């Protein structure tokens, strides 16, 4: 196969593909160039930077392109149904980055609980604000609400239980046999009302924010909110209003409605712990993603 890699990929995985006899081309195309370029490849591997939209698929109809692989979990940067309706298979790598994203969500929880982000920032300005940031909270004994209890949510839930938290999970699908005295499935309103921390792990839902002024109003006062899923899952103006009113204690964010989030008032808020969409950006996750991509390609069409 002739394979295009647009947004980078683990080097050992590319070496493996080449050793298996495939031609691998690593190149990023601008949106206006992508559709025409895809005509010359059997498969394309993208991450989050490249968007494969209906117009790109129209431009490469009838060509050799048969496979689009998203190196990661979410496929909202690909018009999946339109691609599949036109004979192009779309795959992702849902298992590879679960632990990395869950660990980042936990890191943001701890950062929010103990002012790690902002207090570190002030120290780089030669300030010693021990009194201002000496009012942290422990996460042990608190309740974590996980919205979206798939692979990432379950991994975070296990970590939270190990650290002494109770977990409430909301998901349309209930996995059998994982509930226990410290983890229960509940309806959304109960999760919002009872959780001290809330972490969001759902795919993008029709571009509509799941967290908005209505859902924020149902949350416990002083809640800590974490989003490592998709930026458009959250109404950022409503989240900022919740912070400024004190309804929300603090926020941890790795994803944004617009990336990069230039001029974003949430990022500038001192009660926000923020990272630049690095949920899956660990060496271990990238190796697992690469290995999963190789496996998809080697088994494609068999």
Give the SSE map.
Blueprint: E1 2-5, H1 11-19, E2 23-26, H2 31-38, E3 43-46, H3 54-59, E4 67-70, H4 80-85, E5 89-92, H5 98-114, H6 116-123, E6 143-147, H7 151-162, E7 166-170, E8 183-185, H8 188-194, E9 197-200, H9 213-217, E10 223-227, H10 236-245, E11 248-253, H11 265-268, E12 272-274, H12 283-299
Parallel strand pairs: 1-2, 1-3, 3-4, 4-5, 6-7, 6-9, 7-8, 9-10, 10-11, 11-12
Question: How would you characterize the overall build of this protein?
Answer:
By secondary structure, the protein is α/β, with parallel strands linked by helices. It is 36% helix and 17% strand. It is built from twelve helices and twelve strands. The longest helix has 17 residues, at 98-114. The two termini are 14 Å apart. The mean pLDDT is 95.
Flag low-confidence runs: none
> What is the overall silhouette?
elongated
The helix-strand sequence is EHEHEHEHEHHEHEEHEHEHEHEH
User: Gap between N and C termini, in Å?
Assistant: 14 Å
Question: Main sheet?
Answer: 7 strands, parallel
Give the percentage of residues in beta strands: 15-25%
Number of helices: 12
Q: Characterize the quaternary organization of these chains.
A: single chain
Describe the strand arrangement of the main beta sheet, using strand numbers: 8-7-6-9-10-11-12
Give helix % range.
25-40%
Computed over alpha carbons, the radius of gyration is 21 Å
Look at the structure and give the mean pLDDT. Answer: 95
Number of strands: 12
Structural class by sheet pairing and helices: alpha/beta
């Amino acid at each position: 196969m002739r394979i295009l890699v647009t947004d980078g990929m683990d080097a050992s995985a590319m070496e493996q593909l080449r050793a298996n006899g495939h031609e691998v081309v690593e190149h990023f195309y601008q949106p206006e160039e992508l559709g025409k370029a895809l005509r010359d490849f059997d498969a394309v591997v993208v991450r989050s930077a490249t968007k494969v939209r209906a117009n790109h698929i129209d431009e490469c109809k009838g060509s050799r392109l048969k496979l689009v692989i998203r190196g990661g979990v979410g496929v909202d940067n690909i018009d999946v149904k339109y691609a599949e309706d036109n004979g192009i298979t779309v795959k992702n790598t849902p298992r590879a980055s679960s632990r990395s994203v869950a660990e980042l969500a936990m890191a943001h929880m701890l950062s929010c609980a103990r002012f790690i982000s902002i207090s570190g920032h002030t120290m780089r300005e030669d300030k010693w604000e021990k009194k201002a940031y000496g009012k942290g909270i422990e996460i042990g004994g608190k309740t974590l609400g996980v919205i979206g209890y798939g692979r990432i949510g379950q991994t975070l839930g296990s970590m939270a239980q190990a650290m002494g938290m109770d977990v409430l999970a909301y998901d349309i699908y209930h996995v059998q046999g994982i509930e226990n005295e410290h983890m229960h499935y509940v309806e959304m309103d109960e999760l919002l009302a009872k959780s001290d921390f809330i972490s969001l792990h759902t795919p993008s839902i029709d571009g509509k924010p799941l967290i908005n002024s209505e859902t924020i109003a149902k949350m416990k006062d002083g809640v800590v909110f974490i989003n490592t899923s998709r930026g458009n899952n959250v109404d950022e103006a409503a989240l900022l209003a919740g912070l400024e009113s004190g309804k929300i204690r603090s926020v941890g964010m790795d994803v944004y409605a617009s990336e990069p989030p230039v001029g974003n008032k949430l990022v500038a808020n001192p009660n926000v712990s923020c990272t630049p969409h690095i949920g899956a950006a660990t060496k271990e996750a990238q190796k697992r993603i690469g290995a999963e991509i190789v496996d998809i390609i080697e088994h494609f069409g068999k």
